[in-house]
Amino acid sequence: MAVHAALAEPEAAADPAQGAARLWRRLLRSPLTVTGLVITLAFLVLAVLAPWISPYDPSAVSDTTLAGPSGAHWLGTTQNGQDVLSQMLYGARASMAVGFGAAVLTTALSVLVGVTAGYLGGIGDEVLSLLANVFLVLPSLPLTIILAAYLPHSGSLGIILVITVTSWAWGARVLRAQTLSLRKRDFVEAARATGEPTWRIIVRDILPNQVAVIAASFLSTVTFAILTQASLAFLGLADVTQWSWGTILYWAQTGSALLTGAWWWFVPAGLAIAVVGTALALVNFGIDEFINPRLRQAGIGTKKAQRAQVTARRRPRVRKGAPAVRRPAAAPFTQDSTDVILDVRHLKVDYVGDGGGRTPAVDDVSFTLRRGEVLGIAGESGSGKSTLAYAITRLHKPPAEISHGEIHYTRPDGSTVDVLGLDDAELRDFRWEELSIVFQSAMHALNPVLRIGAQIEDVIVAHRPRMTAQERAARVVELLGIVGIPADRADSYPHELSGGMRQRAMIAVGLALDPEIIVMDEPTTALDVVIQRQIVEKIMELKDRLGFSVVFITHDLSLLIELSDTIAVMYGGRIVEQAAAEDFYRRPQHPYSRGLLASFPTLGGPRRELTGIPGSPPDLRRLPAGCAFAPRCPAAFDACTTRVPQLVPVPAPGGGTAQAACLLHEPGAPNGLTGEQSQSTDELATGEAR
């Protein structure tokens, strides 16, 4: 209802005047920034108009020598009778051209080298970083003087090139460090998972998050270039026949203006350099607030209304009652289903060290996901859950490496896809079309400088290039409605949404192309229990409505029991138990599972002491011999320290079959999983209604 209410106004194109008005309002809220911009623009205008507004030729001599300011010469004259005001206006052209020209080239080179090296990595990063380091250790001022001395008659262009060569490395180093940090963020991983090309990820996700750094670097380079040009001209290392503020100072020093008291000859040029530097510093102070949406101080009373009005004008009208489902929902899932959609066999993922050593993060993991099923994966931190999720979606990066195993996906038409055999182009088509992922931290998985609607639309653009802008906008509104977010929130930034709304926005991104499988990597992390309940209910509602399958990964076993159809428990990189959720809750078949369940308090029944699990999860680099859980297991015996247990079928209390990797299930094993050891779990099950 909120979706259609926001779209009830007549369809109209976005008004550019409103965007310009918002821009000016943001500027006016920062008087220092406005002051700096006005001063800088004033100098630029004077520089451009110098040939038309200068009262005299700056090189023309006259009999009025060393005359102070007067009506005929507002800034006085030089010892040759030249008009200082005309020299200042013409000098602004050269000084501003050098400042902004050198800043443009320097910043462009810094962005190209820094972002490319930081994002691509590998040998290219090492070579470009080495080049930047070489220029960083070279003394810039002596190098500038030496290069300028060899280009005495090259004019402004030569000075620009000299400043660019000696100044780009610092900015490149900073941008590389920023890019190295950003490329590991979840929103970049999400963009890569959706199949966006590298250039688009850099332009849409990496660079917008570095605009403040780039802008600050640009402005500081302008100031540095103007000062450098003035210094070189003052030392006579530039072309002194070309008027600039530095040239004026050079001739004033040569003519002993300070000794003769002709202050009007050198003060205006020095003051102009100082004022421009101050103006650029004022702009720099406010640039982060102006660019960063989190720091903008919008009018709270009218902001939502303005955003809703803009959204209503920009979004196309959606017909009431339009279907939200692109494909028919599958039949309700039952434990008797044999319709396997994802088959993972003996999957092994290693982290390869510098010396070639391998750490098995996922070791010999096998499971099946059936159509319409919610498969819950639980375990402590470091058990391999997230690594498994990244392996399924082929999002793992070096040093992670799939060393063994198979992943097969079955389409609705019955055809099978070898996921590990897909090349880059095929993998790009597979992700989000057939399988998508919802990352665990929505605040990190959403790009902080892009609006929510734009981020959902990016997925559609990457896979549906032929869709019109109107169709994409309608789909964005539809997706927001599916997950229960009002349409006007499409123009909100991530920080303007609550934690629950951000997580639902991530689910909307995952649903953008109606995939058959959604991998949810701890989507309720850092949310309070009320919001967790809302997210779980929304996931179940959408699953029943849209018919997709879910791989749900979390630490919260109680949440998993309520949400899942089947539960797999991981420990030390392996699945140690897999069973229907009901059977798992009533009588877990592995000591580790029993310990996890015993760590949760009951809501009813007799009080009991929470036992927990002693010890810590194993270090995957130094796994103990035999069963990885043996050092913490209260039922371990001698064989547990020498043999690695395999998943074997175990009769479940509901009449079905579970799987457990425990030597206690072998014939003749001491202390089987009956009697006293399972009694506490039975009491837990009967004392608390699910």
TrEMBL record:
Subcellular location(s) per record: Cell membrane; Membrane
GO molecular function: ATP binding; ATP hydrolysis activity
TM segment ranges: 32-53, 96-120, 127-151, 157-175, 211-235, 263-287
Membrane topology designation: Multi-pass membrane protein; Peripheral membrane protein
SMART domains to which the protein is assigned, alphabetical: AAA
Predominant cellular place of this UniProt entry's protein: membrane
Name under which the protein is recorded: Oligopeptide/dipeptide ABC transporter, ATP-binding protein, C-terminal domain-containing protein
Pfam families per UniProt: ABC_tran, BPD_transp_1, oligo_HPY, OppC_N
InterPro entries for this protein: AAA+_ATPase, ABC_Ni/Peptide_Import, ABC_transporter-like_ATP-bd, ABC_transporter-like_CS, MetI-like, MetI-like_sf, Oligopep_ABC_C, OppC_N
Residue span, ABC transmembrane type-1 domain: 96-284
Alphabetically ordered keywords of this record: ATP-binding, Cell membrane, Membrane, Nucleotide-binding, Transmembrane, Transmembrane helix, Transport
Domain of life: Bacteria
Composition-biased stretches (Polar residues): 674-683
GO aspect biological process, one term: peptide transport
UniProt region (Disordered), positions on chain: 666-690
CDD domains: ABC_NikE_OppD_transporters (cd03257), TM_PBP2 (cd06261)
Family designation: Belongs to the ABC transporter superfamily. Belongs to the binding-protein-dependent transport system permease family.
Gene Ontology CC annotation, any one: plasma membrane
PROSITE patterns according to UniProt: ABC_TM1, ABC_TRANSPORTER_1, ABC_TRANSPORTER_2
